[in-house]
Structure formats: structure tokens, C-alpha cells
Amino acid sequence: MQLSIDLTGRDVLVTGADFAARQAVRRYEAAGAVVYRLSTPHGAGHDGPLPEKPFLVAAVDDGQPGWEPLLDRCRAAGIPVAAEPAAGPAGHVTLVGGGPGTTELLTVGAVKALRDADVVFYDRLAPCQDLPSLTSAELVDVGKKPGHHKVSQGDIEKLMVESALAGNNVVRLKGGDPYVFGRGGEEVASCVAAGVPVRVISGVTSAISVPAAAGIPVTHREVSHMFTVVSGHAPLTEKEHQHLAGLGGTIVVLMGIGTLHQLAAGLRRAGMRADMPMAVVERGYRPGQRTTVADLGTITSAAAGCSNPAVLVIGEVVRVAEASRGHAEAAADLDRLAASLLGS
Ligand code: SAH
Q: Would you say the pTM of this structure is higher than 0.85?
């Protein structure tokens, strides 16, 4: 059961050894409580006076014996005692895939890692608006610095490693999946090189979820039995255009708005049909989500006003979405017709 209580200005006594209690202390402070500490059950280990009757006792399970009699006395005095998990071991980095930008698509592992973090370094594409409700950690935007200069990849890695070496549980929150055009491999390598323990929590990649937001399945029985995910960061070579055009499956392009023109022209030169369906899905799962459907021959002009972040989809699966949209619209028409007939 989860219960929300307004703790603003309330006295909360957090019990448990410092190493285990630091995250609970931060959570209660972030909730506006006046936090008092008791780090040993024998009364020692607190700074200043303790409140006579705290509103709540947050009992952190630090694995040490001797807390129960004290907590029993609190309960007997009518003070609620909330059990709190101990903080994890300090000084490691967790690379977390944040999904395409909605908390709905965060994994349970991502939510847990955020909750347990001391510091979160996040990107623009991660679900960053919701971070204050998911963690009480210090939040550091490394997507943009004041003046709109990006923090360089090298500097991000240095910041992460230094923070972990200082004893923090560091979360590096990235959009989508850390290993899909996310430079996750480089960040893992720099942690390993510095002797910092590191783990990776996979995320829902935009390559699959953003087309899905527009109703486009990347594979569909008898339509496409493969999909290829390509970076459009730099224009492809002629050879790559030929490979892609020859595959016959779905092509998904990330970071492809800037090179859309070259891609469409290149695929045409490689022999792909001009009427191959194509979609541009902008800002998936975010306000202003928009889908532009055209075909290979017309996409450059149809998508002239499109901007990043966007996912491009090339292939017959785009028509599957169109067909099911048509189906959904027909069903809605029938519902409206039925409602008006019943109403009259
Ligand atoms: N690691 C990420 C991709 C990083 S590259 C992942 O797995 O999703 C950044 C590109 O991802 C953007 O240029 C865009 O093509 C795509 N992208 C990420 N989030 C998106 C969103 N919400 N809507 C549309 N495209 C998105």
C-alpha cells in the first residue's frame, strides 16, 4: 500500500546508521519534513535535541541489532513507524534507459534506480519533466548548459566518474535505450577504466516505440519480417543506400530529419519504388506528437516543416497503420451512427 501524507513542517525522526539512512533523509527533507536523526539505538549518535513526540518515525533497516525495543516504545506511544529500505552501496554508476519521453514507458528497474540515486545526470530526450516526482536526487542537466552549449561527451563521463568516486549512487538517464545510438558503450568503458562499478538498465527504444505511438508496427505478418535501425546523423554512402534498398523490410531512421533529402534521393537511386510508403513521427509520446505520411517520392516536400526529435519509417508497414486507422475511424462512425439512431 502506498499512502501520501503532507509532511510539510512535520517532525520526522529517521533512525538507522548514516550509510543506510542517507537516501531516506533526503526523501523526507525533499517532502518538506523537519528531519531528526538517530543513528544508534542507544541514544547516542544524534545532533542536538530530539523532538518529544515526532509525527512519524522512519525506521531504516540498517541490519544492526537493537532497534526493535526503541521502535516498540514509539509504537506504544502512538507514533507511527514507517519501515524504510536501506540505501544501496555507494559509489556506482547506473546507465538507465529512460524510454521515449513518458514515465508510462519507464521500466520498473529504471524507477527503482532513480529512487535510489544520489545524483542524476539526464539528457533532453529522457523523461525529464517528471524527474522531481521520481527521485529526490540532485538533478544535473547535461543535455544543455546555460548558453545552450552541450556538455561534451568527455565532460559527461568525467562528471559521472568523479561523482561516483566521491561516493554517490549516480544515475545516467538517457533517452530510449542506452545502447541504441546513446553512447552507452563509451560511458560504460570510462567507468570501467576508472574502476567504478557500472550496470546498464535497458530502456524502451524510440526506434520501436515512436512508430508504435503512430500506430505503425515495425513488423507485420506477411508485410515485413525484418526491421533495420539506421542513424541518419550523417548521410549514408551509396553502398549503404543499395544495401538498405535491397533488404525488403522496414527501415527505421533515427536523427534523420537533417539528412532526409539525401536518404530519399539515395534510396530512389538504389532502385526503391517512388510509391514506397513513408512516415515521419515527430515528438512521440509528447505534447505536439505529429505523424506525416507520404511516400518516398513525395516525403521531402511533405516533411519540409518537420523537426527533431523524429523517427522516420520506410516500408509497407506504414500502410498497416493507415489501414487500422481507417478501421478505427469506420468503427467510430458506426458508433456515432448507432448513438444517433438510439437517441432518435
Ligand atoms: N537511445 C535513443 C536514441 C538516441 S538518438 C533511443 O533508443 O531511442 C536520438 C534520436 O532518437 C532522435 O533524433 C530521434 O530520432 C529519436 N527519438 C528519441 N525520442 C523520440 C521521441 N520521443 N519522438 C521522436 N523521436 C525520438
A: no
- 210's CB contacts (< 8 A; 6+ apart) are 100, 281, 284, 285, 311
- The letter for the amino acid at 284 is G
**Residue for grid cell 533529402:** 261
> Residue 112 catalytic?
no
Can you read off the three cell numbers belonging to residue 241?
A: 543506400
Mean pLDDT, 10 residues at a time, the chain of 344 residues: 86 90 86 92 70 92 89 93 82 96 96 95 87 93 70 93 92 97 96 94 98 96 96 97 96 97 98 97 95 96 95 97 74 75 66
Q: Which residues neighbour 134 within 8 Å (Cβ) at sequence distance 6 or greater?
A: 103, 106, 111, 114, 115
How far away, in angstroms, is 175 Cα from ligand 1 center?
Answer: 7
- CA dist 156 and 162 (Å) reads 10
C-alpha cell at position 261: 533529402
**Distant-in-sequence, close-in-space partners of 16: CB < 8 Å, separation ≥ 6:** 24, 39, 59, 60, 61, 62, 64, 67, 84, 86
Phi and psi (nearest 5°) for 254? -100, 155
**What does R_g of the chain's alpha carbons equal in angstroms?**
26
What count of residues does the chain have? 344
Q: Rounded distance, CA 156 to CA 14, Å?
A: 34
How far is C-alpha 227 from the geometric centre of its chain's CA atoms? 23
Confirm or reject: Cβ of 286 under 6 Å from ligand 1: yes
Cβ partners under 8 Å of residue 118, min gap 6: 22, 23, 26, 90, 137, 138, 163, 168, 169, 170
Considering 61, 112, 130, 255, which one is annotated as catalytic?
255
The amino acid sitting at 190 is: S
Backbone angles phi, psi at 65, to 5 degrees: -80, 160
Exactly one of 18, 53, 72, 144 is catalytic; name it.
Answer: 144
